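INFO batch 0412 | record 1 of 1 | parsing
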Amino acid sequence: MFYQMQEIAWEHANLLGFGYKKLKKDNQFWVLSRLHVKITRRPEWTEDFRLETWSRGTDGFYGYRDYNFVDNEGNNIIQATSSWLVLDANTKRIVRLTKFSEFPEYAESVFGENATKVKAPQSDDALQFTPVLFNEIDINQHFNTGRYLERIIDSYPFIFHEQKELAEFEVNFLKEGLPTDRLAVKKQILEDAVHLCSVVRESDGTDLIRARLLWRTR
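INFO prediction complete | emitting tokens
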């Protein structure tokens, strides 16, 4: 699901004139900063669905993009809103989006609000650090954003996934993961269905991402 959203965002940004190739010429690149997803249900195996996306414009700082996964009966089965930044590849500083004339006029998200800040999980549990793998690195030589989510999901035991499924999640992408990093998942259970998670870098103890997960019983 996440990779489908990532790919269609890249393709649509190219069509609008501010995609990967255009930014690369100016030594810039897009990074996903925040993501909020609500899942009514997942598509069934072999089920056809339509994935819609659109740019919601910019406030000068973030570029906003929303998504609908629509089934054959016209029902929105998954919806998401995302907030993106453009960084300078040399300085890693944020590029103000007021310099981009191609953005549409700003509009509200499918949820009526943008993705918000996620609190850091608090836990004294020992962390199990493992090295970054080759297939976890993206085209910019950074840890792929989708792989963070996979690490979090895979940190739960199989029996947990047999009993629970994700109903909603909100993620803040905070720092770049690099090929030489060793990473671990930290968890805090706020209540049975609501968990806070982060992916932590061993070398400096920094949270690279933070996530709030809402689970429901299968």
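INFO post-check: The longest strand covers residues 76-88.
INFO record closed
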